[in-house]
Write a structure and sequence with these properties.
The protein is of the alpha/beta class. Helices cover 42% and strands 15% of the residues. The radius of gyration is 22 Å and the shape is globular. It binds 4'-deoxy-4'-aminopyridoxal-5'-phosphate. 4'-deoxy-4'-aminopyridoxal-5'-phosphate is lined by residues 58-59, 118-120, 123, 152-154, 226, 230-231, 259, 261-262, 287. One of its GO terms (molecular function) is adenosylmethionine-8-amino-7-oxononanoate transaminase activity.
Length: 461
Amino acid sequence: MNAIRPNSAMARDIAFHIHQQTDLKAHKEQGGTLFTKGDGIHVFDENGKEYIEGMAGLWCASLGFSEKRLAEAAYKQLLQLPYYHTFFGNGHTLATDLAEKLISMAPVKMSKVLFQCSGSECNDAAVKLIWYYHNAIGKPEKKKIIGRERGYHGNTIASVSISGQPHMRAGFDIPLPGFVHTDNPNYYRGHEEGETEEQFSDRMAANLEKLILAEGPETVAAFFGEPVQGGGGALTPPRTYWAKIQAVLKKYDVLFVADEVICGFGRTGNMWGSQTYDLQPDMLSCAKALTASYQPLSALMISEKIYEAMVKQSETHGSFGHGFTYGAHPVACAVALETQKIYEERDIVGHVKAVSPAFLGGLEKFSQHPLVGDVRGVGLIAGVELMADGAKRVPFPAARKVGNLVMAKAADHGLIVRAIGDRIAFTPPLIITEAEIAEMLSRFGKALDDAYAVLKSEGVA
Ligand code: PMP
């Protein structure tokens, strides 16, 4: 770690800036990394060091870090109409065009789109709409929301209450009452000896049913799930999981919200994770790759039955009392429309399908590495489980923070990945080429070797 020079950008950053999702004490003592430039799948820090962004930022910069067309779309819109809102029936044609486009792309029949600024706001709005809907249809007692342990749906008070991330609850009096959680479907870590993926999925669905029955089905409104869990570890669902979970939701008349904030727009090798896993959501939230993350924007798609009930409810109350100053921001909508054009012109879904075998196959080879217990992924999202003994599923001591060690070694070799506990997540920009995948994996291999050498010297590996 370099010493922090007085008055350097890092010293000023430590002095004035609170970083999000950050170990505040460590940042205060050691600072972090400040980035100044992007180029394709690469980013550069303030010292000029180059990194492959193996996480596309926060699972989001789908078109990399130097797509000029998106900068131009934003600039053009800033000159034309830099701001307008969508309150009181007002709006602008960009939101109209984008809403129409999203409805035409939806994985199941959807009726309307509500634009917000972030994934969190989108899921928060989904909760409000779910409550609004149940009031409208005369079921005011049906309000509870089910999330999953280690699921992630955002950081507003409601969206983080749906989430199942222990460190985001601790110290914040989260979750709110009425938010309950079912199992995290990590087959590798969670299966009993001899239990197949299908049997594990049976158990997950049976536990969900038990939870609904314990809470009282008449009180349970909705279930939120990411097709592939992101913040929970870039975790693909075990075989037959989604079919079994959806059957339980149907049985008890529980709405299903597919959180496609990470999976939407090609990440899993289809336009939607819902297509990859045959999901039939009543609502769908998306963000991140909607604009390739060049502007903040999210979209909540809802089915006609929910929209009709909302109209009825809004008649009762004089209007639909929800909205944000920056929701459906015209610059963000312009960038989203251009992003969608680029996806189509470059057949981004076809590209993900084409390069996915090199990505998943290359990562799979690390299963043989002494630090690796399991590798799972789909499309261009994958997680690598680090284990003291992979075959026997013996984890490393949590206090050693082996995931963080591998992440730091990767950064030394010019690769940004994310440690989620001892699981290493990869979600590179969707534009990554096979040659770039090879380079990314080569840097990862060096990081694993370096970490192994350290752990061996400590007697941990
Ligand atoms: N849902 C999922 C699945 C996410 O991964 C995230 C962010 N990583 C969110 C919601 C929240 O999105 P935002 O950070 O834009 O609020």
